[in-house]
Amino acid sequence: MANMISNFTSQPDLSNKHIRPLENAGDLDPLLERIGDSKYVLLGEASHGTHEYYTWRAEISKRLIEEKGFSFVAVEGDWPDCFKINRWVKNFPGSENSIKEVLQEFKRWPTWMWANWEIAAFAKWMRKHNENLENPEKVGFYGLDVYSLWESMETIVKYLEKEDPETAVLARQAADCFEPYRKNDSYVTAYRNMKPRCRNEVVQLLSEVRLQTHRYDHESEAGLNAELNSLVMKNAEKYYEAMAHFNSSSWNVRDSHMVETLNTLMDYHGDAAKVIIWEHNTHIGDARATDMAAHGMHNVGQLVRQQHNDEGVVLVGFGSYEGSVIAGEFWGGKMTKMELPKAIEGSVEKLLHQLGKKNKLLIFDEDSPITEIFSSRMGHRAVGVVYDPHRERGNYVQSIMSQRYDAFLYIDKTKGLHPLHLTPDGHLTPDTYPFGI
Predict the structure, then answer these.
(1) What is the residue-averaged pLDDT of the chain?
(2) DSSP 418
(3) Roughly what angle, to the nearest 10 degrees, separates helices 149-163 and 79-89?
(4) Is 239 in contact with 250 (CB distance < 8 Å)?
(5) Which region holds residue 421: left if phi is over 0, alpha if psi is between -120 and 50, else beta?
(6) Does residue 330 have a pLDDT over 60?
(7) Within the chain, what is the greatest distance between any pair of CA atoms?
(8) What is the DSSP string of 266-319?
(9) Cross-strand bridge partners of residue 72
(10) Quick one: 129 and 218 in the same domain?
(11) In a shared domain, residues 383 and 326
C-alpha cells in the first residue's frame, strides 16, 4: 500500500487527473459527467451532524435538478414530517407560512438531523425553483424511513375519516390494535406482547388504500400520502418485531422499507423520474464492500444497485479528517457540539489527508490508479447520532472504497451543522449563507 501511494503521489499529472480539487460548485463537473443519464443518485454523509455534508449535498442536488431534470429528493427521514416539507416547497394550499414553522414540527430525536439551518436554506431554494412550475413538474422532498408508526397512524385516520369513511373504519381498527403499545414507543420494546392480528389489520388497510388512491386526487398528492403512511404502519410493525428479538434483521427490515418506499415514489412520478437520495454512508454505500455482508446485512445502496443498475445508479460517499460534529452522548441525550478527532492511522481519511490538506473529489473509474489504491479494505469513519469521540476506533467500517462507492467527496476539516433553534454564526439566516462556510 505504501509503495502504491508513493508511486501515485510521485506523478503530479497523474495525481491531479484522478484526485480533483473540491472548492466550489464548479468543481463538481467531473461528478456530473460521471452521473450522466443515471436515474438514481445516492448522496451519503459520514455523520448526521456535519455542516459541509449538507451543503455539498445541496449543491450537487441543485445542479442535478437544474441541469439534469431530477424529480425529487428522498431522505433518511420520517414520511409525515418530510411530507410537510414537500408541501411547503411545492407551496400547496394549507402549508405553513415559513420553512422555520415546518421544521419546528420535527419532534422526534434527533431533531437536529432535519430541523437545521442548512435544510432550511435548501428548502427555500427548492420553493423558489418550483414557484413557476405546474404541480406535476415541481421537485418534491420525501422521507423514506420507517420510524413514524404513531404519526402515520394519526395522519391516515384523520384523513380517511374526512375523505373516505368506509376505508377509515379499517384505519381505526388498525390504530386501535396498536394503541395499547404506544406508551412503549421505543425501537426495542414497542412490539413485545403485541397481538399477531395487528399485522393483518395494517396489511388489509394498505391493500384497501392502494385500491382507493384514485379517489383522493382532489387534494395534491393525497393518495400518495395515504398509501405511504399505510406502508410505514405495515413495515414499522415488522421493524419493531425484529428489534424486540435483538438481531440484525431489524436493519434489513428498515433498509428494505426505505427501498420499497423509494420504488413506490418512482412509480408515482412516472417512467421519466429521477431521484436524489440523502442518507448516511452506512445506508448508501454498497454493503457488499464492507463487513456488513459477513453479518447477513444489506442496505439501500446494495438493493438499489441490484434492482435498478440498468437504469443508472451512482453512489457518492463523504468523509473528513477532523473538525467538529453535532451528536448526543446517548440515545435521546442532549444535543452537543463535539470534537471530531483526527482520523486514525491506516484509515481512508488519514490517507487522503496525507495526500494534501485540501478538499478532494475522487471518481472511481475502471482502470484508474485511484481505483486500484482503494481496492483494498481500509477503515472508513462512520459517526452516528450517538457518538463518543474517546472511543474513536470503534467508529471505523472496513471498506473497499472503490466498490462501496462510485465517487467520494473528502473534506479535510468540517464543522457541526446549525440546529434550527440556534442562531447561526454571525446571526446569518438561510438566505445569507455563503456556499461552503
Answers:
(1) 83
(2) -
(3) 60
(4) yes
(5) alpha
(6) yes
(7) 72
(8) HHHH-TT--EEEE--HHHHS-GGGBTTGGGT---HHHHHHHHHGGG-EEEEEEE
(9) 140, 275
(10) no
(11) yes
| Range list of β-strands (E), 329-390 | 335-340, 360-363, 377-381
| Omega before 136 within 30 of 0, i.e. cis | no
Q: For 89-113, b where at least 16 C-beta lie within 10 A, e where not — what string?
A: bbeeeebeeebbebbeebebebbbb
Closest listed residue to residue 165, CA positions, set 197, 198, 208: 208
Q: What is the CATH number of the domain that holds 335?
A: 3.40.1660.10
Is residue 113 within 8 Å of residue 78, measured between CB atoms? no
Question: Mind listing the pLDDT tens digit for each residue in 154-211?
Answer: 666 777 777 778 777 777 777 776 666 555 544 334 444 445 566 666 666 656 665 5
Distance CA 178, CA 156 (A): 14
Residues found in the chain: 437
- Residue 20: strand pairing partners: 361
Q: Return d(Cα 216, Cα 229) in angstroms, integer.
A: 14
Total structural domains in the chain? Answer: 2
Element (H, E) at 383: none
Q: Are residues 307 and 282 in the same domain?
A: yes
pLDDT band with cut points at 50, 70 and 90 for residue 345:
very high
β-sheet bridge partners, residue 50: 416
Which grid coordinates belong to 321?
479528517
What does the pLDDT read at residue 433?
41
- 160 and 132 share a domain? no
Q: Which one, of 251, 238, 249, lies nearest residue 282 by Cα? A: 251
| Alpha-carbon gap, residue 362 to 366, rounded angstroms | 12
Mean pLDDT: which of 86-90, 204-208, 420-424 is highest?
86-90
Q: Checking phi first, is residue 394 left (phi over 0); if not, alpha (psi -120 to 50) or beta?
A: alpha
Q: Which three cell numbers stand for residue 294?
A: 459477513
- Quote the cell numbers at residue 263: 420504488
What number is the average pLDDT over the span 14-26?
Answer: 80
**Is there a single domain that holds both residue 225 and residue 342?**
no
The domain containing residue 160 runs over which residues? Answer: 147-272
Task: Taking residues 264-291, report their average pLDDT.
Answer: 96
